[in-house]
Design goal:
- The protein is built from ten helices and ten strands.
- By secondary structure, it is of the alpha/beta class.
- It folds into two domains: 64 residues, no CATH class; 154 residues, Vaccinia Virus protein VP39 (Rossmann fold).
- The strands form two sheets. Strands 6-2-1-7-8-10-9 form a seven-stranded mixed sheet. The protein has a three-stranded antiparallel sheet with strand order 3-5-4.
- Strand 9 and strand 10 form a beta hairpin.
- Helix 1 runs parallel beside helix 3, helix 3 packs across helix 4 and helix 5 packs parallel to helix 8.
- It starts with a helix and ends with a strand.
């Protein structure tokens, strides 16, 4: 079923009426696509969707989770992870303490990717890792640190490209054993993150669209990958403003592969390759 403009307006007002969630500044294209999928998966029409949102709190929570869930994987887009290792972490590694925030961390593979990289650079111990998401279910998965293996076979090739190769010096190769960081159980279709990584991040439930819900800390690095694409331009810039205020001087902002700063927030950062540095 196709979602019309008037349907979307009714969805916005209904959700605001019965909860603290506000999707009015989310990308309409993305939101329509996800709502259409919810209708199909639940075999209901739009009128029933609105009725269930109003009268069934569990269904409302599930709908919010279905709208906000994002996909991720270990070392997703490994070329970006090479830049993080060689161009970002090299600039902060000499600090006495490093604060990092994964905003919209989803199921946690990104969090563990960076923790592995920090450990390889010998700076994991002095790093404080914060990770947040709006969806409590994905946070539970992140804390558990256990993922399907066969579904994510690209993990290992991503790992090799991000950690074992140097695109600026192709003769430089590192030999890192996977078993150093996770246990692979092919027969059980599991990849299990080791406890010393799993116990490092501090996870919390946060809504990036609410400015009073941001951490009080100042960060050296903020990663918010593949989240802003679900917001309209006004909301994107509002969130970027908050990131700017939460970054330390010369702090780094890392977005998704297909995301970029638009509008007035461009003037608050210097773009350096695949990342941004606070001016």
């Amino acid at each position: 079923m196709e979602i019309a403009e008037k349907d979307l307006a009714l969805f916005f007002s209904t959700v605001k009426q019965v909860s603290s969630y506000d999707f009015t500044e989310y990308s309409e294209k993305s939101l329509k696509r996800r709502l259409e999928r919810i209708l199909t998966e639940n075999n209901i029409d739009f009128k029933t969707l609105i009725f269930k949102i109003k009268n069934d709190s569990l269904f409302l929570k599930k709908t919010v989770k279905d709208i906000t869930v994002n996909t991720t994987e270990l070392f997703r887009d490994p070329e970006i992870w090479q830049e993080i290792r060689l161009k970002v972490l090299s600039k902060v590694k000499n600090k006495s303490e490093i604060n990092i925030w994964h905003a919209g961390c989803s199921t946690g593979q990104e969090v563990y990717s960076l923790a592995i990289m920090l450990n390889e650079l010998g700076i994991l111990e002095k790093s404080n890792i914060y990770a947040s998401d709006l969806n409590p279910d994905v946070l539970k998965t992140a804390k558990k640190g256990e993922y399907r293996y066969r579904f994510n076979l690209s993990y290992l090739s991503n790992f090799d490209k991000a950690l074992k190769e140097n695109k600026y010096n192709y003769t430089e190769k590192s030999d890192i054993d996977y078993n150093k960081y996770f246990t692979i159980k092919p027969q059980k279709d599991k990849i299990i993150i080791h406890d010393f990584l799993r116990n490092k991040p501090f996870y919390s439930e946060k809504d990036l669209t609410k400015q009073d819900n941001f951490p009080a800390n100042k960060f050296d690095v903020i990663l918010c990958r593949n989240v802003l694409i679900y917001f309209n331009l006004h909301l994107q810039n509002k969130v970027i403003d908050s990131f700017y205020n939460n970054l330390k001087e010369d702090g780094f902002l890392i977005l998704g592969k297909h995301e970029s700063l638009l509008g007035y927030t461009e003037n608050k950062f210097n773009k350096k390759g695949k990342f941004y540095q606070k001016i």
